[in-house]
Amino acid sequence: MNPFIYDLSLEELQQWAVENGEAAFRGGQIYEWLYVKRVNSFDEMSNLSKELRRKLTEQFSFVTLNEITRFESKDGTIKFLFGLHDDHAIETVIMKHNYGNSICVTTQVGCRIGCTFCASTLGGLKRNLTAGEIVAQVVQAQKMLDPKGERVSSIVIMGSGEPFENYDATMKFLRTMIHEKGLNIGQRHITVSTSGIVPNIYQFAEENTQINLAISIHAPNDKLRSKLMPVNRRFPFEDVIESLRYYQAKTGRRITFEYALIGGMNDQVEHAEELADVIKDMNCHVNLIPVNHVPERKYVRTSRNDIFKFQRALADKGVNVTIRREQGHDIAAACGQLRAKHMELG
């Protein structure tokens, strides 16, 4: 199969144009057709010669995201299950906020991190997505919003998979998203979430971006985190915290800690106090996420009363904390459930 046209950066398109006997600015024209005019085929690139369009058609493919199913929530959230060219499937979610449209993108087919409360990891990791397959999710969402005169205003890389285990493709995707000649999404409106792949947290600190970093922490210590997140055995809690302190010293950026509250596991006041003692000197924010029920898992949601107790315990120790506003709760519960259901039916 030909490489995806969305896999190429502007500079790579310009280089390709030159190598194919064209002026470099033709690469810029192709880039504009892809990201500003958002065409669906090379034939629509009307200011390119027929010969150049023929070469593009022969050498590249558009990413095909076949919509298998979609669910629309009462709150405006739209959840898609997209089929890929090789019969794998991924989820993408568009969320409506009062400040605009946010898209949650996926970076891998499945996941190998193995968090015990998550549906995404049930079938293991099938493969990494290319940068172009991640890009295509945002382009597709933007095409859907175009008739309404709306735009994708923010991106969260929190769909299935571990972005930092597909690091190069994720970074290439990010550079395409923020490019001023492309979709031009503000860096501070993009958040990448990791389960704590320590070497790549250090690498991300050197990238010199304004993109937000979120960490799935889910426990205040090594022992409990290893029970909930097997990745903690590879990258222990203390090493994750140390890498985050380095990231913060290097970038000055605030870190978001994502903490899924699981009934009777990690949701007691003593857990909150222990977490606060670890992170209270950091410029950070804790986002509490009442865990979604996953049929294949035995976990239960933390009671409302315990959620608020946990929040208060963190706040009393000076930690900035909020409870995540739930969206799309009526259409599908946990991340990964649409894909899991599709795999069963398949």
Can you summarize this structure?
The active site is at residues 91, 335. With 346 residues, the chain is of the alpha/beta class. The chain has twelve helices and twelve strands.
Using only CA atoms, what is the Rg?
A: 21 Å
Q: What string, H for helix and E for strand, traces the elements in order?
A: HHHEEEEEEHEHEHEHHHEHEHEH
Provide the structure class.
alpha/beta
* Main beta sheet strand tally, sense and closure: 10 strands, mixed
- Assign the CATH architecture of the largest domain: Alpha-Beta Barrel
Question: Mean pLDDT, rounded to whole units?
Answer: 91
CATH level-3 fold name of the largest domain: TIM Barrel
Tally of structural domains: 2
GO molecular function: 4 iron, 4 sulfur cluster binding; metal ion binding; rRNA (adenine(2503)-C2-)-methyltransferase activity; rRNA binding; tRNA (adenine(37)-C2)-methyltransferase activity; tRNA binding
Protein name: Probable dual-specificity RNA methyltransferase RlmN
Enzyme class: transferase
Function: Specifically methylates position 2 of adenine 2503 in 23S rRNA and position 2 of adenine 37 in tRNAs.
